[in-house]
Every structure is written in structure tokens, then in C-alpha cells.
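Appendix B. Raw example, untouched.
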Amino acid sequence: MSKPTLGWIGTGVMGQPMCGHLLSADYAVRLNSRTRGKADSLLKQGAVWCESAAQVAAGSDIIFTMVGRPDEVREVYFGEHGVFAGLGAGAIVVDMGTTPPSLTGEISERARALHAHAVDAPVSGGDIGARNACLSVMVGGDEASVTSIRPLLDRMATTVTWMGEVGNGQHTKMANQLVVAGTMIGVCEALVYAARAEVDLDKLVSVISKGAASCWTLDNLAPRIIQGDDAPGFMVDHFVKDLGIALQEAAQMGLTLPGLELASELYQQLQRLGHGQSGTQALVHAIRQLSR
């Protein structure tokens, strides 16, 4: 049985290595990105450049998108030269970014109207997970479509979980971001507190990461904070977007989530400090400012 032809749209910090894993597995990939220069390494691996998302879709059996803001997602799918302008019957579109569940529903409806299928498959694990193919993927969609793309997701991730119907992947990602946001606040406050108390920060992380405080953020991002490394694994601007989506969804459900509200306020403050393009671990700067 021949391998499907894949389409990939979006070659940012995470999209580039994720697509690279598929190329390394000898899949034919048709590629488009807002900035062609960011796709150079993938083109050298054998990806075929397409001038538009529609062109990607027209020649692909399965199309992955990994783009940022909701307006970008909408343009990539619904724009004049977007995915739906070229999508063929029987194809599957897979949105791997973090998208409002309401927009995910619109994508699914349009795909069905074109006799195609839509899957939402947002990821967690940041740049490290993307580079090392050890992401966690939370998937929403019909079981047959999810089963058919599972071997591809396994190339990019160590954990792939089907959460049920379309949109459930995105709702799961919102819950993930709530945990990430709260944990990041705790880690940053712990480091600021320990620094003020003149405790050795490397030893601190080593000892508390072996107990009840153990978490991915301590293992992977606390060392970056200690080293003053603000480089993005996941960008603050994108995280503010995600937290905004979570706030909107919570409001629609009639939920009040004070931790989420605090995290959103702190990250917006971090943006005002000029750290929109920094990684989420840069939150320590906003907390330090409050602690002066």
C-alpha cells in the first residue's frame, strides 16, 4: 500500500521540526509557509514548495496545519487561496495548533460539505517535544479519520490520545494550558523566593524536582530561567492568545476560574514589558517586577 501524500502548512518553532519528522520517514510532503525562508531546511530534506495553502491541499491526501492566531487559522482554511479552495473529497485536514473550539467546528462543517474530514490535534511539549518527537497530542474527530492518521502522529509524539468528537482535542488543550499557566507561576515564584533567600537555585531545582513538586516545567524550563535564557520554546504572544481562548470558553460555560484570570493578567503584563516574543518562562520578569 502506497504512502499518502502529505501537506504541511506552518513552519514556526514547532511546525518546522514536526514536519521534518514526517520527511525523515520518507513521506512526500507538499509545503507552504508564510515565510519561505523558514522552510528552507525542509525543502532541502525533499519537501515540495507550493505557492498557497490551496495548492498544498489540491495535491495532498492529508493536510496538517500548524499556525498561530485564530485569524491566521481562518485565513489558512477559508481564505481565497486557503485549504478549502483546493481540498478534494476524501482528504483529511488536521489542525495541530491551538484553535478556538468554535472555529474548529466551522472547519469540520466546511470539510464535511466538501466530502472531506477534519481532525483537531493540538499538541503539548514545546520546542523540546517538537524537536525530539516526544509531544503529547490530544485528538478530536471521527474514529476512522483518527485511526488513519495515527501512524503520522506517532512520528511526532510519544503520547497520542483520542478524546472523542471534533473539538474535544481543543477543549483538552485548554485544560492543558490551565495547568501549564498555574505551574509556571508556581515555578517562577519559587525561584524568585529562593533567590531572595540566597538559596542555590540549581540545588533547589534538583531537590524539589524529586518530590511532590516534580513537573515538566521544573525539569525543562527552570534551568532556562536560572540561566537567564528567555528564548521561546512556546512564545508569550501565543500563550496570551491561548489563555484568552480559555477565558472565552470558560465564560461561555458560566465558569469563573481565578487562577486562569491571574495568569492572563500576568502574561499580558509580561507583554507590556516587551517579552511578547520570549518564551513562557520569561514570566519570571513580571513576577520579579512585582516583588521589588
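End of appendix B.
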